[in-house]
Specification:
Strand order of the largest sheet: 1-2-6-3-7-17
Shape: elongated
Largest sheet: 6 strands, mixed
Helix content: 25-40%
CATH topology of the largest domain: Aminopeptidase
Distance between the termini: 14 Å
Order of helices and strands: HHEEEHEEHHEHEEEEEHEEEHEHEHEEEH
Number of domains: 2
Number of strands: 19
Radius of gyration: 25 Å
CATH superfamily of the largest domain: Zn peptidases
Number of helices: 11
CATH architecture of the largest domain: 3-Layer(aba) Sandwich
Oligomer: single chain
Length: 415
């Protein structure tokens, strides 16, 4: 597919409709969709379905396995061929209504920046999905009609997306050609970054159990669980290995109840992340291997403390792989023809791409550029700034996505 033939009409169409796309974004941003606000999640889902309905998409809402969350939303437009493209975004943000109000965090345009909750994480990405499909329908209607388009909207990506990942994997099949994840794409120093790998994450509960005693009269009878935990968390933290991109963070720890009692219990939460599956599983084995560990005991009779470790949740790594690289190479080549410098990026944060990368070719960072994801605070001196979308990134990134998709799909439709 010749890029030069489509570039000018595509850019012209998108520039003409940019204000309309941003108006859709404004209405999305004004709906609070904090993960644990199911009414807001479902309101945003219905609004999004209404936006896509004129393009021929039909909605299926699928309740989350957790009652405190809203429903996952699946938008489907059937094509004339069996070929499918999955387009992934999410409905939830990390901001409560109170946080938005307290920080005066709302839709606000200043020059080339649009501030507001979810502008790039990830409501701007959802709007870019719409812009991509709207533009493809306009400039290449035959391709648009041929493809079975599937839009997957996660209700709880910011907290616990395991059931969403299962939902996607159940529906993907041999005709699902690719999965595009519309998290924000970075644009720095004239380079556009697409995400080709993400760290996996495991969260552990670590408990230390000992024996309580009076700290004055029977100190020697106690088995101090806090002391036991102090040793264990140092052992766990020491697993961090920057050379292997392995990080282990003891993020929360507490124990005991009052200072005149030898504590019988302590608890910590630990998070571990790594790109490599081998590194990931080796670190997991090391942490789980502390189950039953004991090195602290009562001086009086040797009553031992004991350590117990369990996995609270787990998201597997998305390592660099040939199928992702195939998509990246195509986007990079189209970008080169457009005069865009496309670079690969490996991120430490998670996305829904972690959950599907083993099933179909997956690439991430398809959304617009901006900054300050997960930030709602603002200060006059500029030391704190809120999440924003960089408007000049929207049309070029949409052009890149459209033309790359058209080239990718044309190669399959011509087979």
């Amino acid at each position: 597919m010749p890029v030069a033939e489509y570039r000018e009409p595509l850019e012209r169409y998108l520039e003409q409709h940019l204000d309309g796309y941003l108006e859709i974004l404004r209405q999305m941003v004004e709906i609070n969709s904090f993960t644990e606000n199911p009414d807001g999640i479902n309101e945003l889902g219905r609004f999004t379905a209404d936006v896509f309905a004129p393009l021929g998409f039909e909605l299926t809402a699928i309740p989350s396995v957790r009652e405190s969350y809203g429903s996952h939303h699946l938008l489907i437009r059937k094509g004339t061929t069996p070929f499918r493209i999955a387009l992934v975004s999410h409905l939830d943000t990390v901001y409560t209504t109170k946080e938005e109000e307290d920080n005066h965090f709302h839709w606000r345009r200043e020059g080339d920046r649009i501030y507001g909750p979810g502008t790039i994480d990830i409501k701007g990405g959802t709007v870019m999905i719409y812009a991509v499909l709207d533009a493809i329908q306009h400039i290449a209607p035959d391709v648009f009609e041929a493809i079975h388009w599937e839009i997957y909207l996660d209700a709880s990506e910011e907290n616990d997306a395991r059931d969403f990942g299962a939902l996607c994997r159940e529906r993907f099949d041999e005709n699902t050609l690719a999965c595009l994840v519309f998290e924000a794409g970075h644009w720095m120093d004239d380079a556009w970054y697409l995400v080709v790998a993400r760290k996996g994450r495991a969260v552990f509960d670590v408990e230390a159990k000992g024996r309580a005693s009076h700290s004055g009269t029977n100190h020697h009878k106690g088995a101090n669980a806090v002391i036991q935990m102090a040793e264990v968390v140092q052992t766990i933290a020491a697993l961090t290995d920057y050379d292997r991109a392995l990080t282990v963070n003891v993020g929360l720890s507490h124990g005991g109840s009052v200072i005149n009692r030898v504590p019988h219990y302590a608890h910590s939460k630990v998070e571990m992340r790594a790109f490599s599956r081998d590194v990931y599983h080796a670190a997991m084995s090391s942490i789980l291997g502390l189950e039953g560990y004991s090195s602290v005991s009562s001086p009086s009779d040797g009553y031992p403390c004991s350590v117990h470790v369990s996995i609270e949740r787990e998201t597997p790594p998305w390592p660099r792989n040939d199928r992702t690289d195939m998509l990246f190479d195509l986007w990079r080549d189209v970008g080169k023809e457009l005069g865009m410098n496309i670079q690969p990026q490996e991120r430490g944060g998670l996305s829904d791409g972690n959950l599907v990368c083993e099933v179909v070719p997956t690439i991430d960072g398809m959304g617009p550029a901006g900054a300050n994801v997960h930030c709602s605070e603002h200060s006059e001196d500029g030391s704190k700034e809120q999440e924003y979308l960089f408007v000049p990134s929207f049309v070029p990134k949409t052009v890149l996505n459209c033309l790359s998709l058209l080239r990718f799909l044309s190669s399959h439709l011509l087979e």
